[in-house]
Amino acid sequence: MAIRERLSGNEAIATALKQVNPDVVAAYPITPSTEVVHYFSQYVADGQVNTEFVAVESEHSAMSACIGAQAAGARSATITSACGLALMWELLYVASGHRLPVTLAVINRALSGPININNDHSDSMGARDSGWIQLYSENNQEAYDNYLMSLRIAEHPDVLLPAMTCQDGFITSHAIENIELLETDKVQKFVGGYKPERHLIDGKPMSVGPYDTVQFYFEHQYQRAQAMIGAKKVILDVFKEFGDLTGRKYGLFEEYKMEDAERAIVVLNSSAGTAKYVCDKLRANGEKVGVLKLRVFRPFPAEEIAKALSHVKAVAVMDKADSFSAFGGPVFADIRNACYDLEKRPLMINYIYGLGGRDVPVENFETVYAALSEVIKTGKAGNLYRHVGVRGV
Amino acid sequence: MSSMVEIRWHGRGGQGAKTASLLLADAAFDSGKYVQGFPEYGPERMGAPITAYNRISDERSSLHSNIYEPDYVVVVDVTLLDAVSVTSGLKKEGAIIVNTKKSPEEIKPQLEGYEGKVYTIDASSIAEAELGNRSLSNTSMLGAIVKVSGVLPEAKFMEDVLSSLKQKFASKPHVIEKNMKALERGMKEVKV
Question: What is the interface pTM, i.e. ipTM, of the complex?
Answer without folding.
Answer: 0.94
